[in-house]
Design brief:
- The chain is built from twelve helices and 19 strands.
- By secondary structure, the protein is α/β, with parallel strands linked by helices.
- It has two domains: 116 residues, Response regulator (Rossmann fold); 310 residues, Ribonuclease Z/Hydroxyacylglutathione hydrolase-like (Metallo-beta-lactamase, Chain A).
- The strands form three sheets. Strands 11-10-9-8-7-6-19 form a seven-stranded mixed beta sheet, with helices on one face. Strands 12-13-14-15-16-17-18 form a seven-stranded mixed beta sheet. Strands 2-1-3-4-5 form a five-stranded parallel beta sheet, sandwiched between helices.
- Helix 2 packs parallel to helix 3, helix 9 runs antiparallel to helix 10 and helix 11 packs parallel to helix 12.
- The relative contact order is 0.10.
- The chain binds zinc ion (ZN) (2 copies).
- The site of one zinc ion has 5 residues, from loops.
Amino acid sequence: MKTIVLIENDVLTRALLSQCLAGEGWCVMEADNGEAGLDLVQKHHPAVVLCDIRTPKGNGFKVCRSIREQPALESTRVILTSVSRFGNDRDSAFGAGAHDYLVKPIPPADLLRTLAACVPKEPEPTEETISEAEKHAPTLVRFWGVRGSIPTPGHQTATFGGNTSCVEVRVGDNVIILDAGSGIRLLGQSLMKEFRDKPLNITMLVTHTHWDHIQGFPFFIPAYSPKVSVRVLGYEGAVHGLRGALFEQMQSAFFPVALHQMASHVTFEELDDLQFKLGSVRVSAIFANHPGICLGYRLSTPAGDVVYMPDHEAYERHEVERQKVSGETSEQGLDYARRQDEKVIEFIRGADVMIADSQYDAAEYPARLGWGHTCADDTVQNAILGGVKQLFLFHHDPDHHDKKIESMVERAQEWVAEQHSTLSVAAAREGAEYLLQPH
Ligand SMILES: [Zn+2]
Ligand SMILES: [Zn+2]
């Protein structure tokens, strides 16, 4: 039975909410002030805290902040309530780390819907619950945004595209979106056209919250539909939580619609494990060499494996150039860097498709040392060493027009031929699809 701590100063409201929750199978613990409520939270680690913002001995914002500051209570969801309809109070609730904000009187249906959206979902589907169609489906990879750093529209980028990172991986009706760069806008339109009134469940895997990987989210139309559920997964950033970063880019100074005004069920889950399942797809993650916390993902689907590592700086070249600049020589440093590259090669080993950071060429790289992106030569070499079948050069530099990208692909193909490798190399192109057939 899931536990909820109800912090509410008004006796009648508390009795009504408590009755409604108990009737839905919740174990309800009640407190009439913030201090007593926090005591219950410390003792019982509830799944949810439902707290009025105007409570004595510790208001709701304070209670929420105190819970968010404690790593042991990371999985406890906080829903703040109030009679206040002031936008300011709502914003402060989300700013304090609340998962939702409900205005009183709270219709029971709204309360239950909010709880269903914020409490961790039903267990991962077992083999039996994964549809036959999904188990035997091909895997479709579709590129919606392939550019790094900033969108670059214009005739010089028309062939490969100017939208920032967004890739769709589809296994049957399992819709997985990798990053929410500006390319996600068109993907959203396409999904709404395809699913129309049918229910649509989307999982979004975010590698990190740099702007080019989340900036399209406010324009993702499915998130405004009450029939859609969007589950956003990512690892906690160095400074901001996943939800915090998406929340902040939609604050009124930057965008007219707030995150909580999206009508769909948008839930955020910060990853604890580097391995998990999404239906028939096994996901493993690796930390990339990129400023802050950034992941690469490997999606093992029934039809084959897709690696997505959009932002990563290969370790050895980084260290070689760093030593050149600093005048330092350290064999130990080089060995360490090589070992890190080997871990990446193990991570990508045998992948059918690899979509990987190839932002610079070898001549450009030294001037961009430590910017968190890879020289394409290293991406190709790692793919060869890892026995990858199909490599897509990705996260194209905003200054690289189509001709430059074509020349980088030619250079990569020559390199592959010199190494007598069977690796196939292309540049990721907006609108392009790649299909993996089941074995
Ligand atoms: Zn990026
Ligand atoms: Zn980045």
